[in-house]
Amino acid sequence: MSIQLYNTLTRKKEPLRTVEPGKVKIYVCGPTVYNYIHIGNARVFVFFDVVRRYLKYRGYAVTYVQNLTDVDDKLIKASKETGRPVPEIAETYIRAFFEDMDSLGVERADVHPRATEHIPEMIEAIRTLIDKGYAYERNGDVYFRAMAKEGYGKLSHQSLEELKAGARVEVNEQKENPLDFALWKRAKPGEISWESPWGRGRPGWHIECSVMSRKYLGDTFDIHAGGTDLTFPHHENEIAQSEALTGKPFALQWMHNGYINLGNEKMSKSLGNIVLVKDLRREFSPRTIRHFLLSAHYRNPIQFTRETMEQMERGIERIDTAWTNLRHRMKASMEGAASPETTKALDELTRAFEGAMDDDFNTAGAIGVLFDAVRLANELVGRDVVSRGTLQAVADWLERYGGEILGLVEAKAEEETDEQVEALIRKRQEARRRRDFAEADAIRDQLAAMGIIVEDTPQGVRWRRKS
């Protein structure tokens, strides 16, 4: 079965199409770096991290670009409110963004272009659009003629009246049409700005992505993605100006993830009902947060509650316990190859995992298969006799599919041998043999304070670090 994905442009599921066979070029709209990101922002970045990993697993060469919007109205507003220069604010939150993403196991994009590093290319693109008659200048501002491009509205599938209502634009007598949008904005006193043929100013938001995606992925690339709130006007405007600029299709397929809801409302900075990633990381492990963000199909909304997060945390604990038990049992198991029964079961799990991911990257289904593998691991560990090869095969499956693709299994070849921990465990065992349970409990508490969990099993004492 080929990979199927839901294309927002066609509003149907279709086979993954690529400009070049065996290669996938992806552009995901990144953060506007004027503040810390919330978990609604993080959802798209974590999900497309998995998409990228899975495409590589499927044998594709993936080029992944994720921009950083480091100049726009929000940054300028933050600069005025704090008295800090825009570049300083941007740099602060770029560092914070990467700290959050690194903690959640999101691999860096191949390119993270910054808008401010591509101003000359944006000016040249705007100049070309003016020359082609798609854009016009008014008193230092430059606007794109939205209705001059046939098919405007094809991504959001809205009528002209709906588009005008959705644009929510203020009355601007400079515009020929209310739907026209800014390509270049004249600088106001004290604002960050660059020289241009139309005077000092800065680029509009939409032109940034068109120019940067073209530079790093070409005139036409394979997948353009972002949150569903970007469908209109951002992505709609990108299509119009990009295809006007090049005369070619912009992106073959468009993917948009759903909202995270808090209460009865979507989570957004504008509504003020946000949960920042950096704050949530203080309460829950990064893999617990990642589990939550992948727990529903990406196009569906997710309801954020503390109860849900605790459920996700218990899921990660189940995975960790199964993994640790596997590694521990392997030390005491007999030599031998993987059993045919287990090999067959793992093959079935692989088919189920691929079936879920091939069907529009259904991470919820894939996680369900991962927990089927956890149950298999637990069943094998509980057997009186099981070969090391059988246990190793299950561990390898968990590491590959649960770890390398989903990023939920923190696979270690072996628990690290720590002389201090091992010495304390021996001391505790001696205390238990003497029936000095007070000392044994005190040592367990000492280990717990070090982040070590001690478990007494039929196969002996084992220990692991808290996740």
TrEMBL record:
Q: Could you give the cofactor binding note from the entry?
A: Binds 1 zinc ion per subunit.
- Per the annotation, the residue ranges of the short sequence motif 'KMSKS' region are 266-270
Instruction: Give the main EC class.
Output: ligase
Keywords assigned: Aminoacyl-tRNA synthetase, ATP-binding, Coiled coil, Cytoplasm, Ligase, Metal-binding, Nucleotide-binding, Protein biosynthesis, Zinc
Keyword Electron transport carried by entry: no
Q: Which residues bind Zn(2+)?
A: C29, C209, H234, E238
Which SUPFAM superfamilies does this UniProt record tie to the protein? Anticodon-binding domain of a subclass of class I aminoacyl-tRNA synthetases, Nucleotidylyl transferase
User: Could you give the subunit structure recorded for this chain?
Assistant: Monomer.
- CDD domains of this UniProt entry? CysRS_core
What's an example GO BP annotation here? Answer: cysteinyl-tRNA aminoacylation
EC assignment: 6.1.1.16
Q: What is this protein called?
A: Cysteine--tRNA ligase
Q: What is its main location?
A: cytoplasm
- The leader peptide range reads none
List ligand-binding residues for ATP.
K269
Subcellular location(s) of the protein: Cytoplasm
GO (cellular component) term, any one: cytosol
Please state which protein family the record places this protein in. Answer: Belongs to the class-I aminoacyl-tRNA synthetase family.
- Report motif location: 'HIGH' region: 31-41
Task: Give the GO molecular function terms.
Answer: ATP binding; cysteine-tRNA ligase activity; zinc ion binding
Please indicate which superkingdom the organism of origin belongs to: Bacteria
Domain Cysteinyl-tRNA synthetase class Ia DALR: residue ranges: 352-417
Q: Catalytic activity, per the record?
A: tRNA(Cys) + L-cysteine + ATP = L-cysteinyl-tRNA(Cys) + AMP + diphosphate
Which co-factors does it depend on?
Zn(2+)
* Classification via Pfam families: CysS_C, DALR_2, tRNA-synt_1e
Keyword field contains NAD: no
